[in-house]
Design goal:
123 residues, mainly beta, Jelly Rolls, 7-stranded antiparallel β-sheet, 7 strands
Length: 123
Amino acid sequence: MNHPWGLGRQQPPGDASVFGRPGREYPHEFVIDLGKDQTVGGLIYVPRSESNSSGRVKDYEVCVSENGKEWGKPLTKGTWSNDATTKYAPLSPTRARYVKLRGLSEVKGQPYMSAAEIVVDVE
């Protein structure tokens, strides 16, 4: 699949396992298991597009791991705008099996984290 920003391939939907760690307050996490070590170049976050923006990630960081247990320092962190547009977090190419999107806050200060889709940009 061609990357919408022309940077490589995306992990096709259905080829990765995604699981969240729900809770009543931030931070929240979505962890993507790519199934095997791959070169990761970025993460795409698609917020829910309904008029209700509850759960949209505002402040975030992205970490990677080879085993899903030991996580290094975030490879990137930032702040996304409160709108339904697709967000991209570029990463320096890194080998990993697991990719974690860690939501540090929500756009309205709510305790929820949501996503319509999360895709890992792999080479």
